[in-house]
Amino acid sequence: MAPRTSPEISGMGHSMKRKEDPRFLRGQGRYVDDIVLPGMVFMDIVRSPFAHAKITKIDTARALKVPGVLAVITGETLAKFNLHWMPTLMSDTQMVLPTEKVMYQAQEVAAVIATDRYAAADGVEAVEVSYDPLPVLVDPFKALEPGAPVLRTDKKGKTDNRIFHWEAGDRQGTDAELAGSEVVVKQDLYIPRIHVSSIETCGCVADFDRAQGKLTVYMTTQAPHAIRTVFALVAGHVGLSEERIRIVSPDIGGGFGGKVPVYPGYVIAVAASVVLGKPVKWIEDRMENLQADSFARDYHISAELGAKRDGTMTALRIKTIADHGYTDAAANPSKFPAGLFSICTGSYQLGHAFAEVDGVYTNKPPGGIAYRCSFRVTEAVHAIERLTDILAHELGMDPAELRFKNFIPPESFPYHSALGWDYDSGNYAAALRKAMDRIGYAELRKEQAEKRARGELMGIGISSFTEIVGAGPSKQFDILGIKMFDSCEIRVHPTGKAIARFGTKSQGQGHETTYAQIVAEELGIPAAHVQVEEGDTDTAPYGLGTYASRSTPVAGAAGAVAARKIRDKARKIAAHLLEVAEEDLVWEPGKFSVKGAPQRSKTIQDIALAAYTNHPQGMEAGLEAVSYYDPPNLTFPFGSYICVVDLDRGTGEVKIRRFVAVDDCGNIINPMIVDGQIHGGLTMGMAPALLEEISYDEDGNIQGGSFMDYLLPTAMETPSWETDKTVTPSPHHPLGAKGVGESATVGAPPAIANAVVDALWHLGVRNIDIPITPEKVWRILHEKGVAE
Amino acid sequence: MASHQIRVTVNGTPHEAEVDSRLLLVHFLRDVLRLTGTHVGCDTTHCGACTVLLDGAPVKSCTVLAVQANGRELMTVEGLERDGKLHPIQEGFWEKHGLQCGYCTPGMMMTSYALLQRTRSPTELEIRQAISGNLCRCTGYVNIVKAVQYAAEKLREE
């Protein structure tokens, strides 16, 4: 799509260089730990060495004698203010600091406040805590067994460890269809617990101003407004009233969903600041971040896919056990305890489907929704794409051919899925064909056959995924009751420049640039002269924040709608200035001209000045507008990824030779930024497929709790991604744009897993659970007698 | 705890300070000198977000004590720009979209700077090896490689 505006205006479609870069390139970004306030003190946290234990004593005497230590805060301190527990987004309860027992290793037990971070760390070492260990539950299946110890003894009447049972679809119809299917493939898949590990960890500076009774919190949050409301709801009883709470989310060093939840550290820092009357800084270290902050995935999936012998898919049935840790703090919309897992019918016409998820408590930290998952879409796509490949192999069909046979055809959109979603638009075959042409699919299959004859192991994996992003319509979507709209407020200055504020919050996705491009597209004001701000709840309009790729679908739409309101008023002013009727005016970005007399025109700059100096009688002065956008539907971007792997028969290493990613996110605001999102997303798809995992031993000790063995990919492990696009606009979005930030992380893992299994299928290998480590492959190679 | 008087030159400016023996160089730069471009991303010396140049060589400043820098020359991200003009590395990262959240960027650029001091024509593999001590969670490294190549070309032209 050719851009409609000039490079000078840089509306949609321009690869405009980022407006945020000049400060980051100079080391002048302002992240939370860069903030220093007068009188600021530091907080550090005492954490539990046990996964499950009764606290018998917390002795703070020695810590209070450490030079620089000012105070030690315990659950008892917070209990006096009824702040030792807090509600989660899923209406469960979470400890801020415990008064009786700990529920996971690394849980917050007490907080030390000191004059600097070194003294605070000394203080943590000096706090003496006595524990009585309790039986530990780490396996969610065991946690569900009758007679398993009940973890949540704080919940009255709770007799087991089940958190919720959720289901979608037609159980009987699906059972019947599967029973009558000519072929049924069944596979258990474990999607392991992983962690976003944004390079900046979580932290805050809480600053309670006693004189004004106002709390300001600078914090690493993806949803500052929601946080403000949560703080008001949780701490209203101690005088924290919403108009006197200001949350500022400054520059954020990556979020990836890990900075959506409210962590105990934030709440303790706020309490400490209120108690001490000083600004309190809390910055967690990497191990704390990995061990205690929101995890992602941890789904034990059992899936069955039925088909006719010719490959026509008939029915899908999925049963899942979801490990949520000790409390359900998953950052889901309130009516979706399993997120949008019901997108699991994927890109295919599936007449019958049924999905159920049981959430389970274990002695692990809470979380589940993070790491570019779009509310469990990663899990859903992994299941359907793995099953599709297994079905193809079982039938002896090419995996691409099977996909073409079952794709929802372009003319069927909007498509109503068996599990209730109305897909907005798509042309799946076009994306897959493009990926196949680009990678040379037919030749690769030939090469694979030749290599196999020589005993070499090469695999080709496809993933043709459909995403669901842009939560969401108010009828279904809310966070703690607040509907999932988003917002934009644009104010045009007398000299024709503008400031625009949004209810979302970038963590590197480039909103300062792309939102300016949306305003430029709609008003013709050069994007360079549109100042975009987010993250300060005193100034930005209320929004639900940035996660689940919702910024473009929701706030982006609000930006376009607000700009169009301004354009409507601008048209009235132009008509007044040119002394013609509104209908006689023609708009092109930046200018109204008289129909048939293009030399008679007024630029948006002329109009802006007039709005302040010569506005029509009966009209308000000024030129500004606000929009709170309630999306009519979600957006459904899609893509087809193809991965080629070579397996090292000596070491079991999986080498990604090529990876072609064709994405379709509708109309593109900034191609350069979209590509960057996809590169990063693919890397965050490869990482859990091949490297990253957090597991627990029987005693609940975390394995993978530091960068020593939680393996983030470096430039050496990361392939050189090849990206391409098709463009199928969203019909309901004002700009035809769809979200894209998470597509690649959703789509990539099954392409990689499919490629590895494809390389080994002829040896009788049906599945390898991710991460597909060299050790797992090496063992298989030895078992099958093909190791070198 | 013993404290020490140190003298260091940072980005050409001499500084004197009294520091505890255990103060990490990264905290000296960030908390004492308030040069907050250098970041902390881990606690095990893996991420490289704290990379600075110590007598011209890239070091992870979370794994150097401030006292060890006594009498030596440091260069941080704040020293890349000269006379209001971005260094070709900074320009390359901007042109090629080699950064997103910006948190790894200062360390990544300092490592790249050191690489381009050693060689003006690095191969893609050499670039990837050079930055393998610097983790990035946003870019997938593709555009960082392009940014370094851009800078290398710019420097060859100079």
UniProtKB/TrEMBL annotation, chain A:
Protein name: Carbon-monoxide dehydrogenase large subunit
Top-rank taxon: Bacteria
InterPro entries in the cross-refs: Ald_Oxase/Xan_DH_a/b, Ald_Oxase/Xan_DH_a/b_sf, Ald_Oxase/xanthine_DH-like, AldOxase/xan_DH_MoCoBD1, AldOxase/xan_DH_MoCoBD2, AldOxase/xan_DH_Mopterin-bd_sf, CO_Mo_DH_lsu
Positions of region (Disordered): 1-20, 721-740
Aldehyde oxidase/xanthine dehydrogenase a/b hammerhead domain boundaries: 26-135
Organism, scientific name: Anaeromyxobacter oryzae
Gene3D superfamilies: Aldehyde oxidase/xanthine dehydrogenase, a/b hammerhead, Aldehyde oxidase/xanthine dehydrogenase, molybdopterin binding domain
Transmembrane segments: none
Assigned keywords, A-Z: Molybdenum, Oxidoreductase
Pfam family, one: MoCoBD_1
From TrEMBL, chain B:
Residue ranges annotated for the 2Fe-2S ferredoxin-type domain, each copy included: 4-80
Pfam families the record matches: Fer2, Fer2_2
InterPro entries linked to this entry: 2Fe-2S-bd, 2Fe-2S-bd_dom_sf, 2Fe-2S_ferredoxin-like_sf, 2Fe-2S_ferredoxin-type, Beta-grasp_dom_sf, Diverse_Oxidoreductases
Keywords from the UniProt entry: 2Fe-2S, Iron, Iron-sulfur, Metal-binding, Oxidoreductase
Recorded coiled-coil stretches: none
Protein's name in the database: Carbon monoxide dehydrogenase
Organism taxonomic ancestry: Bacteria, Pseudomonadati, Myxococcota, Myxococcia, Myxococcales
